Amino acid sequence: MSTDDKNRAIAAAILPLVGGAGNISSVAHCMTRLRLGLRDRSLVQDEALKALPSVMGVVEDDTYQIVLGPGTVARVTPEFEALVAEGAAEAPTHSAEELADKGAALKAARKAKNATPFKLFLRKIANIFVPLIPALIGCGIIAGLNGLLINLGWLPGVTPALAAIASGFMALIAVFVGFNTAKEFGGTPILGGAVAAIIVFAGVAKIEVFGQTLSPGQGGVLGALGAAVLAVYVEKWCRRWVPESLDVLVTPTLTVLVSGLVTIYGLMFVAGEVSQGIGDFANWLLENAGAGAGFLLGGLFLPLVMLGLHQALIPIHTTLIEQQGYTALLPILAMAGAGQVGAAMAVYLKLPRNGSIRRTIKSALPAGFLGVGEPLIYGVSLPLGRPFVTACVGGAFGGGFVGLFSMLGDKVGSTAIGPSGWALFPLLDGNKGLGTTIAIYAGGLIVGYLVGFVATYFWGFSRELIEEFDVDTEAAATPVPVAAGTPAATPGHEPEPEPVKV
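RESULT FIELD:
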């Protein structure tokens, strides 16, 4: 079977289990997950979906998210969208309308119950920056390769071209942030990009504000975000008050003019001070309290991911990459995944009779080593409870290890956001040699693996938990797939509840 046929087969297997084409209101994807908007949640066949070999787990938040893994999700999504389009064209109009009415009511009730203004704001921030991650990764790897070639003295005629390729996106990242911000907040994307472009325009060096001459790029992504949000509000005001006959001329002109003047004479200076403060604080924290900060950040990152609060760190990472060329926070946070991997290996040994959980771990560990943690979180540690806590302990010690070296003067950073685990090695950078940087990061992973394993093996299971889960699931009276996070029922025990949805 060709790759295209395989991806289409995966999409075709998923579609009927989520209620068919008529039940899909939106399709998108991130680094690892296929994100679906559903009209009627009750039509989803959760257990059958989780049992598909290609599905690593599911997560329910503002959308229904199916974990397929990096690379796979980017290839399956277009095939899924094509199948949805084909099915929608064939579906009777009246049935789709009925589903839409019912699904809208369910979606509104669920959002009213679970959404908070703060979480909704963080989702908007994530939606602005997540689409930029592939370019950050690609340019970051090229920058690392170029640095290696320069250090080795190889291909001197090629390295300037590689430097231009690697740096071009970062030089204009403010424009992309402005474009995505306006789109996310309900404005015209190109107007948001136009206002944000002022920040990186070389001509701002001729302008003096508060006794200081502006510099191109001052304020960075934070300034671009603020400028684009302001542009959206100016544009919406114009849409309300400008006559329709003049709208096409007046609205874009006023939007760019008003927002541009405020950006030049206020936002660039303020955002520049904030960005500088973020960089200074991160440096001070790692230099003076790196071990303790690393311990806390590494230990708390998994719970932050569960609550969706990790999205608040995305602008901070991007700001640090703009300023320093790398973010020293990401390698520390990546240790949470190492603790998760160590915990999963301990679970594998502690439950020798539970073939279902052991198969889940065997299939999910390769992704876990590459930094994709959802299969292990939702399929193993979170449903079991205590192993999730001990996984956090492993992440804490790994983060403390990397943070300790920051205190000693050896910073480890990443030139892009998104990957973690072994996938972060090509993106590593720091203030010392590449060999030292790689060795420190590898050491942190090993510490995370070992502590996560030891903590889970000796303290991750109570006697009752062992008795309940160390059973032959193949012979259980009511077999329930464990691969997606719901342990099988055993004779004399009630089935475990669904894992926490975040």
